[in-house]
């Protein structure tokens, strides 16, 4: 199977209010690489996804994204400094060490998509 090579995988993230969601993700730190009337490509470093102008409540409320970063606390400070929870009226919980070896925080986007943004917990020496 050496001839089968994959290059990339992206999720299609739903957006109830497409323009609001595009701004939310840009405030969060993603770059808007391109956008059409109903689809936007957002990226940060090696992480990217497609934001789609599509909303089904049951789908959005059960959609989760998990992003590994080098420093979850730095990302959390950015979220707080930009006032993202109050600006967008969303739920966000500060970073915690998780039993599965990550320090992460929870952020729910304006559509209801749950994000876990985390980094590895350094091994105790």
Poorly predicted segments: none
Q: Can you give the mean pLDDT?
A: 95
* CATH architecture descriptor: Roll
Element pattern in H and E: EHEEEHEHHEEE
| Annotation, overall tally of beta strands | 8
Helical run tally: 4
Write out the strand line-up for the largest beta sheet, numbering strands in chain order.
1-4-3-2
CATH class: Alpha Beta
Straight-line distance between termini: 41 Å
Over all CA atoms, what is the radius of gyration? Answer: 15 Å
| Strand residue content | 35-45%
Structural class: alpha/beta
What does this structure look like?
This protein is an alpha/beta fold. It has a single domain (12-120), classed as Roll (2,3-Dihydroxybiphenyl 1,2-Dioxygenase, domain 1). Helix content is 24%, strand content 36%. The protein has helices spanning 18-28, 57-60, 72-81, 84-88; strands spanning 12-14, 31-35, 39-44, 47-52, 64-68, 92-97, 102-108, 114-120. The model has no long low-confidence stretch (mean pLDDT 95).
Descriptive key words:
125 residues; alpha/beta; 2,3-Dihydroxybiphenyl 1,2-Dioxygenase, domain 1; 4 helices; 36% strand; globular
Task: Give a quick rundown of the structure.
This protein has 125 residues and is α/β, with parallel strands linked by helices. It has helices at residues 18-28, 57-60, 72-81, 84-88; strands spanning 12-14, 31-35, 39-44, 47-52, 64-68, 92-97, 102-108, 114-120.
Layout of helices and strands:
Elements: E1 12-14, H1 18-28, E2 31-35, E3 39-44, E4 47-52, H2 57-60, E5 64-68, H3 72-81, H4 84-88, E6 92-97, E7 102-108, E8 114-120
Parallel strand pairs: 1-4, 5-8
Antiparallel strand pairs: 2-3, 3-4, 6-7, 7-8
